[in-house]
Design goal:
- There is one protein chain.
- The chain is mainly β and 171 residues long.
- It has one domain: Electron Transport, Fmn-binding Protein, Chain A (Pnp Oxidase, Chain A).
- It is built from three helices and 13 strands; from the N terminus they run H-E-E-E-E-E-H-E-H-E-E-E-E-E-E-E.
- Strand 11 and strand 12 form a beta hairpin.
- The longest helix is centred in the first third of the chain and has 8 residues.
- It is globular, with a radius of gyration of 17 Å.
Length: 171
């Protein structure tokens, strides 16, 4: 490609269909907002570096939890176990719940920051916000991990090709 040529971007449908070919663990990203606990089903949580321990999450501007993350400057990433499909449904909107009512699905506690953590999560990272980068309709939130907990047992709830999978088998 010569320096004078430009590339066009792909459409959103192609983007999501191609991204769906990547299996990803289902997470609930939470914060303690001004009006109580807030959270959403997140598929984009990932590590940045281990030294210092840093994660990033992408949060849609329409997600009510973003206000809590920005106001309180913290978030927790909860890795869902295979038997937590009801929790994923509550936080994805499939169960018809919104706001703090989503937290009725399951038992919740906290670690260091006050962000809600799912007691039966396979793993939890509790983070303080370091940076926020606006990109299109989302905010990329980068946080330093200040507490973590790993269960060391169980299988994950996985999202692949638009479907929820329990561990390594179909739901």
């Amino acid at each position: 490609m010569s320096s004078g040529e430009s590339l066009t971007t792909i459409d959103a449908k192609t983007f999501w269909r191609t991204l769906g070919e990547r299996a990803t663990g289902m997470t609930i990203v939470t914060a303690q907002g001004e009006d109580g606990p807030a959270g959403f089903l997140g598929l984009s949580a990932t590590h940045v570096t281990a030294d210092p321990a840093t994660l990033l999450v992408s949060i849609d501007a329409k997600t009510s939890a973003l206000a809590g993350v920005l106001a309180k400057r913290h978030f927790a990433v909860n890795f869902l176990p295979a038997d937590a499909g009801h929790v994923a449904d509550a936080f994805s909107g499939k169960a018809g719940l919104s706001g703090a009512d989503r937290f009725l699905a399951g038992e919740w506690g906290e670690l260091a920051t006050g962000a809600p953590v799912f007691n039966k999560a396979l793993g939890v990272f509790d983070c303080v916000v370091d940076d926020v980068i606006a990109r299109g309709s989302i905010s990329i939130v980068i946080g330093t991990v200040v507490a973590a907990r790993a269960s060391g047992e169980g299988e994950p709830l996985v999202f692949f090709r638009g479907k929820t999978l329990k561990g390594f088998g179909a739901v």
